[in-house]
């Protein structure tokens, strides 16, 4: 099993807390490939992180954590 240093677990919790759906992410400009990368805990760009923060209405700490 591959161990990932990056975790997007905070993002899913933040989305649930703020009632933001994956559909809203896609409508906000995130593409399916990027959403799939996030689900697999793969790297995203800082521009994508910024876009996620704007769509969800949160800070980077609410999206990603390093283990």
Output the helix-strand order.
EHHHHE
CATH-level-2 architecture: Orthogonal Bundle
The level of helicity is: 40-55%
Specify the oligomeric state: single chain
Beta percentage is 5-15%
CATH first level: Mainly Alpha
Mind describing the biggest β-sheet? 2 strands, antiparallel
First and last CA, distance: 16 Å
Say how many strands there are: 2
Write structural notes for this entry.
The chain is mainly α and 67 residues long. The protein has one domain: 434 Repressor (Amino-terminal Domain), CATH 1.10.260. 51% of the residues lie in helices and 6% in strands. The longest helix is centred in the last third of the chain and has 11 residues, at 46-56. The radius of gyration is 11 Å and the shape is globular. The chain starts with 5 loop residues before the first strand and ends with a strand. The mean pLDDT is 94.
Task: Describe this protein with a few key phrases.
mainly alpha, 434 Repressor (Amino-terminal Domain), 2 strands, 67 residues, single chain, 4 helices, two-stranded antiparallel sheet
Set out the fold topology:
Layout: E1 6-7, H1 9-17, H2 22-27, H3 32-39, H4 46-56, E2 65-66
Antiparallel strand pairs: 1-2
């Amino acid at each position: 099993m591959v161990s990932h240093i990056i975790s997007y677990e905070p993002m899913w919790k933040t989305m649930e807390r703020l009632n933001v759906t994956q559909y809203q992410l896609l409508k906000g400009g995130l593409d399916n490939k990027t959403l799939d990368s996030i689900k697999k805990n793969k790297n995203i760009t800082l521009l994508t992180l910024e876009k996620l923060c704007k769509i969800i209405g949160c800070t980077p700490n609410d999206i990603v954590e390093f283990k």
